[in-house]
Known about the structure:
alpha/beta; five-stranded parallel β-sheet; 5 helices
Amino acid sequence: MAYHDTRFEHDDRRQLLWRTLCGSYFQLLVKPGDVVLDLGCGYGDFINHIRCARKIAVDQWPGAADYVQPDVQLQIGSISDLGAIQGSSINFIFASNVFEHVLKTEFAECLSEVRRVLRPGGTLNILQPNYRFCSNEYFDDYTHVSIYSDRSLCDFLRAHGFRILDC
């Protein structure tokens, strides 16, 4: 996809950022024995830095294979098709800057699959641009097709059966 050559080029400087985010925040939420799924993994910045028993990543971009570490099980395809993942097998699901790139129908399908693969007590963890705070630049990314603020995203998640633990 030309997107990764123009709008979202690889930048090694993100390694320090993600190593720091994982080490000082996300790792506190992930236990050593957990199974972690990264939806829309892109360059693998999150999944490559988190420590857990098993790592799974999904992205529609075939180029992701060039960036994820060998210990990551990569599935090339849609985030709404998690059929290759066993039900109730995932402890921690991470999605960073992905849901604004899909239509609400695909997001809803993804959430249905997320519910299927999450273990009891498992969590969906989302980092997302907040339209309320970046409306002037939101559509500078030509692949943004859905708009979410902190409020609308929480409402969408609740409407699809999720309980919000923190926003």
